[in-house]
Amino acid sequence: MRPITGTHVYSYVKCPRLAALDLHLPRSERRPPTEWEEFAAQRGRDFEASYVAGLGAVAPRHPERDFAAGAAATRDLLLAGTPLVHQGVLQTEDCLGLPDLLRRVPGASALGDHHYEVLDVKTSGRPRGEQILQVVFYSHLLTALQQRAPSHGALVLKDGREERFVLADYEAAHDRVLAALRALRAEPTGARPFLQAGCSGCYHDQRCLGELTAAQDLSLVQGMSHGARAILEALGCRTIADLASFHPQHARERGQLDAALVRRLRRAAQAHLLGAPLVETRPRTERCRDGAIVHLLGDPFADRVLAFGTLYPAVEGGRFTWTRAADADDEWRAFDELVAALPERVPLWHFGEALPRWYEGQVFAREADPALELRFQALDKRLRGAATYPRPVFGLSDFVQFGLQRDALRAGHPGAAALWARGGDGDERLRQKLETDLRDLAELIAAILEAPPTVQADSAEGVATLGL
Ligand code: SF4
Fold first, then answer.
1. Domain coordinates in residue numbering, the chain
2. Which fold has domain 197-275?
3. Taking Cα atoms as reference points, which of 88, 159, 95, 96 lies closest to residue 117?
4. Is the CATH number 3.90.320 carried by domain 4-190?
């Protein structure tokens, strides 16, 4: 029986299917990490190592992967009252945990006049639910060993701040996750894949996408939810082709799903079968191409913007300019220079939250023109509302792939920007990526926001056009 680990708890919260596969498949079945994924993972390990280095924590000595020996050595350290234990091994009959740190706190337990609590070191800037549940899981294993439940657990975040929380607040959620993991360990088919934003960064992506495509799973349809999929399948609407021609007459025939939702999902299934976006009818009050597109590449680990780029006018052949920010103090200059070179008052189109969030962080510290923020216009929201796409669209690469039928990552993955920034040809790779993204965005404006609406798929003409 494979033990349930803290990693399984973490994975389950992100995706039950991920935990199920991890519980049943050998590591060799995972896709190998990309160069930039490995780079990000190494930065996390380096951060933990450098944080722990100055603490004087003691690690239990044991042969590699001999967890029984590790658990015995950890117990000895805890019995001896070692103030801080690094990567102790906690084991019960069917669970295994390797918390980053165990800290001695006052209060009697089976270990003596003291007991321990769990700290986990994370590279995120704020605590997340799956990280907290991991600490609760380790705390349960610790409780079994010291015969006393610690009252608190803590996460150490990337700025070194310690976020303490009361374990009892998360007990019920932890118990539900652990019960679900035990069920999945006995029967992995209890968790089916469902296409979601995290799939593109998951090492089981090829396996799941292959299964979803073969089954023509409803989660490949834009706007689908777990609940709607379950209801539609129970009604006998199991594939995308079924959904594309699903015309229930009454609320009961549509499983009480909202009629507008069913119409939207049906249209999304039709877009999937067509393999192209269906442009919606909507009021057109402005010409997006008269504005400029502003884009950035960042390093989320370091909370840094590496480079900004602009395209003006917002057409594929518009003038591209870019600037590299040498360091955090140089980011404002880089942005300010680029925007100052654009005509005054033109709208500044941007994709996603990165630019407004960065600007908000800067504006209090700078003599920023408050009118500038009013020029920001969110392209992603417009693009999402203007068409129905053949697959769910989460990030820019999805809009490019399913809006333009083009490989959005042909100039590289934005997650690799921090890796490029370290290399000899880093500036050139950043420039290429910015320019490619900006020209793709301009094409999306032309193809989606400024295109005439697609014929209604449910009309007689549409049925013939789409072959439904
Ligand atoms: S690819 Fe997606 S559905 Fe499959 S395990 Fe990963 S996150 Fe879950």
1. 4-190, 197-275, 288-449
2. DNA polymerase; domain 1 (1.10.150)
3. 88
4. yes
Closest-CA residue, ligand 1 atom 5, reads 18
Q: CB of 457 within 8 A of CB of 267?
A: yes
Q: What is the pLDDT of residues 32-68, one digit of tens each?
A: 999 999 999 999 999 999 999 989 999 999 999 999 9
Ligand 1, atom 1: closest residue by C-alpha:
205
pLDDT on residue 405: 95
> How many residues are present in the chain?
468
Task: Give the span between the Cα atoms of 205 and 8, in whole angstroms.
Answer: 17
Residue 220: is it exposed, middle or buried by C-beta count within 10 angstroms (0-12/13-18/19+)?
Answer: buried
389-439: pLDDT as tens digits? 999 999 999 999 999 999 999 999 999 999 999 877 889 999 999 999 999
Q: 288-449, which class in CATH? A: alpha beta
Atom of ligand 1 nearest to the CA of 18: 5
pLDDT in tens, 209-239: 999 999 999 999 999 999 999 999 999 999 9
Lining ligand 1 with CB less than 6 A are: 15, 17-18, 21, 193-194, 196, 198-199, 202, 204-205, 208
End-to-end CA distance of the chain: 49
The overall average pLDDT reported for the chain is 93
Calculate the alpha carbon distances from 172 to 109, 136, 168, 179 in Å: 24, 10, 8, 11
pLDDT tens digits along 176-220 = 999 999 999 999 888 999 999 999 999 999 999 999 999 999 999
pTM of the model: 0.91
